[in-house]
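Progress note, sequence design subtask.
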């Protein structure tokens, strides 16, 4: 029998790189100019060994990129467009790359890859030319069958495997062309049919470097019996400077009689059904079958049962060991992967994770489900056969809904919007919520609302809840909310809502007043016109002016209003609130005989609120305060639903304030599930039930000056609700 010899020749080719520069923003004094030139170098020794494509004719198609010292790309263009251009750049260090071809593929045609990489420096106010030379960045490989093999009528071929995935390029017995490979691991595998029995010889892997030219020379040696299980490979590495020869041991493979065996890798061991929903990452759906074929693959039939794939032209059955180009491209387009050039191999695989990814990236169409059943049949060279139905894909319709509770719609925002996704039917990250309005120019186009969910949810719960808020809306405006799954208009929920009105309270500037007199002597003021159809504000003036004025007690010391107005407001009139003595004489006041002044929304002795259907976030007003002793004033705001307080805020202060100062009462809502039906605002001159009193204090009211026993004085103007 004969010995098989591989002779390897490695020839290094010099290439040249190209570089180009992009303009950065800076002052002219910090800039320089560069022009780009690009050429190529080809080793003449390589051209004598195999036909070399004239790369110079493609120089204009090179893609140029420029990066600054931080690795940020500043420029990208083809060399043809940049060749005659002077490019301004800030002074500094740069890296230029020029590339042509695909760096990842391998083959005889359309597999060239040239690259240049070069660093350069730009100096201020200079114009320099950057000349780059492009070099081949792949490994060039040829296979030569010599001596006895050329006289042999047997069938044989060589697979050149590259990388670690098992991908290979096949060199037939008549192939004379060279092929191009990504740099890295290279493994030659020789297949030889000896008297109807295929023998396989696998060499030890070697490393191929960019710009190497490798020639494998394969010969037969009649002095070695291949049945002994060993053959030798002679390897010659021929560079421009030296030649190295060495021997490599290779493995001889013969028939075992062991039939093919499958190993199915799935998310659900023992269950070939894979439920896939749009939006899920393919990595979460493992669907792969590994086939161990001791007597090497002769046929690998993939059978596909799918109305969807059939409608796209995918064949119902295909031999992956002998597949035509059209079928190969179709299967790869839809994510079906397998061991290339698997004929004659002992180990192969078919991987369908990519089909799960295809389902995930496609829109869900209930009328066209992407369900598919896959079956694989393997026949070896010893006519042994095995089959398995290893994957059944079922596309699941996402089940979700939008829970937009109307009470959570405010004047300028919507809070606590909740979307629910049924677990195991979809990916929460694929849900998209956006909204728009026909009447709000700021939202004439759909605007995205970012949704959030708890990644640590209890997996035992049926649903996954997602939350979001919308802000910056226009009051009293209609909007449409849209919840979609992966922008799929066939998976969408709509919800229309109208924002609350940004309503204000009546007589907010305290310009409306009326007056009467008690016993024709003491004035009593009311914060509304006497003929007003709607009265917003009231006070406790009735209390302090009705109880203590009589024929036996005609003095103002114990009978005077707590609330009146001043013409010296911030804007026009303002409300004045004080405390008055309700028990005492001109010489003494009992501690329990003082009533704090009170201005409030509602009716004294009646309903202390006003109908109101909006929910502000705060109340602002302007005030002055002249305290007596340690008195403290208070502003109280309550938003009501019936008799239930759903939002509340208060503000207190005891400091003297002589000039108009803005006060803010922030409202906190304890119940967001209820709408507002009423509002209550109260200004207290003193929070004490027994406020401090100054005896014989002169007070100026619209009807003149009065001397009485009175307390601290709070002046309020321009109440405004904030949304």
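Output:
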């Amino acid at each position: 029998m004969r010995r098989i010899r591989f002779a390897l020749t490695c020839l290094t080719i010099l290439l040249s790189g190209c570089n180009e520069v992009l303009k950065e923003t800076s002052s002219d004094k910090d800039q320089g100019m560069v022009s780009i030139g690009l050429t190529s170098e080809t080793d003449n020794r390589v051209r004598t060994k195999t036909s070399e494509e004239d790369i110079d004719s493609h120089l204009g198609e090179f893609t140029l990129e420029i990066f600054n010292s931080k690795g940020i790309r500043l420029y990208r263009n083809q060399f043809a467009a940049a060749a005659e251009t002077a490019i301004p750049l800030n002074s500094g260090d740069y890296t230029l790359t020029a590339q042509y071809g695909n760096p990842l593929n391998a083959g005889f045609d359309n597999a060239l890859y040239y690259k240049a990489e070069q660093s350069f420096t730009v100096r201020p106010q200079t114009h320099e030319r950057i000349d780059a030379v492009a070099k081949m960045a792949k490994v060039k490989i040829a296979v030569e069958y010599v001596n006895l093999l050329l006289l042999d009528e047997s069938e044989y071929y060589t697979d050149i495997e590259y990388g670690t995935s098992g991908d290979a390029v096949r060199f037939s017995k008549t192939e004379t062309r060279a092929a191009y490979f990504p740099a890295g691991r290279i493994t030659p595998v020789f297949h030889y049919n000896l008297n109807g029995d295929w023998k396989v010889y696998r060499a030890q892997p070697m490393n191929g470097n960019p710009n190497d030219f490798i020639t494998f020379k394969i010969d037969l040696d009649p002095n070695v019996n291949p049945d002994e299980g060993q053959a030798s490979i002679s390897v010659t590495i021929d560079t421009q400077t030296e030649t190295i020869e060495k021997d490599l041991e290779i493995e001889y493979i013969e028939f075992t009689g062991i039939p093919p065996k499958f190993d199915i890798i799935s998310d659900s061991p023992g269950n070939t059904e894979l439920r896939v929903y749009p939006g899920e990452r393919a990595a979460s759906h493992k669907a792969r079958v590994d086939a161990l074929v001791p007597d090497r693959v002769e046929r690998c039939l993939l059978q596909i049962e799918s109305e969807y794939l059939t409608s796209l032209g995918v064949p119902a059955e295909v031999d992956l060991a002998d597949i035509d180009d059209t079928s190969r491209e179709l299967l790869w387009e839809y994510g079906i992967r397998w061991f290339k050039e698997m004929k004659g191999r002992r180990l192969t695989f078919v991987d369908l994770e990519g089909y799960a990814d295809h389902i995930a990236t496609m829109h869900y169409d209930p009328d066209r489900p992407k369900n598919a059943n896959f079956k694989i049949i393997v026949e070896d060279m010893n006519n042994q056969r095995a089959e398995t139905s290893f994957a059944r894909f079922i596309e699941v319709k996402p089940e979700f809904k939008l829970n937009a509770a109307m009470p959570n719609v405010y004047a300028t925002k919507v809070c606590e919007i909740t979307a629910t996704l049924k677990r195991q039917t979809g990916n929460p990250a694929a849900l998209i919520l956006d909204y728009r309005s026909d009447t709000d120019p700021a939202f004439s186009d759909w605007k995205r609302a970012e949704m959030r969910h708890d990644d640590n949810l209890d997996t035992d719960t049926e649903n996954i809840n997602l939350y979001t808020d919308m802000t910056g809306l226009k009051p009293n405006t209609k909007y449409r909310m849209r919840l979609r799954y992966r922008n799929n208009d066939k998976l969408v929920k709509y919800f229309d809502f109208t924002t609350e009105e940004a309503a204000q309270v009546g007589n907010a500037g305290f310009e409306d007043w009326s007056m009467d007199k008690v016993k024709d002597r003491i004035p009593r003021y009311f914060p509304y016109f006497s003929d007003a159809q709607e009265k917003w504000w009231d006070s406790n003036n009735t209390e302090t002016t009705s109880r203590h004025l009589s024929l036996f007690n005609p003095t103002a010391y114990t009978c005077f209003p707590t609330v009146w107005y001043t013409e010296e407001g911030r804007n026009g009139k303002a409300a004045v609130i004080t405390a008055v003595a309700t028990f005492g004489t001109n010489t003494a006041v009992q501690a329990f005989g003082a009533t704090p002044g009170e201005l409030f929304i509602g009716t004294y002795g009646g309903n202390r609120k006003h109908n109101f259907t909006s929910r502000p976030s705060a109340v602002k007003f302007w005030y002055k305060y002249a305290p007596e002793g340690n008195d403290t004033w208070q502003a109280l705001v309550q938003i009501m639903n019936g008799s239930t307080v759903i939002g509340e805020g208060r503000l207190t202060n005891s400091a003297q304030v002589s000039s108009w100062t803005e006060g803010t009462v922030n409202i906190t809502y304890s119940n967001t599930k209820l709408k507002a039906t009423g509002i209550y605002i109260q200004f207290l001159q003193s929070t004490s039930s027994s406020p401090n009193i100054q005896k014989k204090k002169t007070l100026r009211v619209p009807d003149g000056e009065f001397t009485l026993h009175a307390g601290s004085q709070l002046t309020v103007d321009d109440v405004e609700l904030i949304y």
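The mean pLDDT is 85. Work on this subtask will continue into the next period as scheduled.
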